[in-house]
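Minutes, project check-in
Item: structure for the 223-residue chain
Input as provided by the requester:
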Amino acid sequence: MATSPSTEPQSSITSTTSMQPTISAISPSSAADAAKTAPLKELLLYYGTNRYELDIFSSPKAADSNPLYHVTFQTPQPVKPCVALHVGTASGPVLGISKHHHVTGTSSSIALGDPSTTENPNDFTWEMLERTDKSRSSYRFEMEVGNGERRAFLWKRTHTFNSSMRTRKLVDEQTGEVVAVYIDYFLKSLKKKKGKIVVWKSWGEEWEVMLLLTICSLLKLYG
């Protein structure tokens, strides 16, 4: 299901590290191994002022800490994104957006940067998040991770961490390694806590933005 990206110039997110992978020791080869492996990073997701917003904090979260990212969810419209990722707060710069193509959740278009800042949204590189099976248990996306290399990743359901249907592991399609996991606090979600993202391997800041946009797109679809 690989989809060729736009050939127009890419949007820019300034980063001195986004082109080089950062690895925490050894990436786990399975979700079971991942549960026993020290992570590179952990991010906590909290509901904002309502269920249409998320604040994302570094873990552990201090009482006076500020969010690293803010996520807004919108009802699908032709001129508005379904998901927008901001720096810090809702008034912060937009790092990327996601648009759903089908209410059935078969695919979404994702752009790094803010297409609303240009008259032609095609000036941005759009990647596809696509469902790979009828059961909606797996979604795939590709992106450039540096030096012209394109890499594919799969968000797959997993029950290694809890029994939530929303909990997913992110698998590097090339190596089969589990590089991250989203753990949904399905019982705690009635309160402020939404979930946690654990990262074992990173390809830089743009990859982290793509990770957040893709999992938040799935949260928009499935709660």
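Outcome recorded: Confidence is low (pLDDT under 50) at residues 1-25.
No further action items on this chain.
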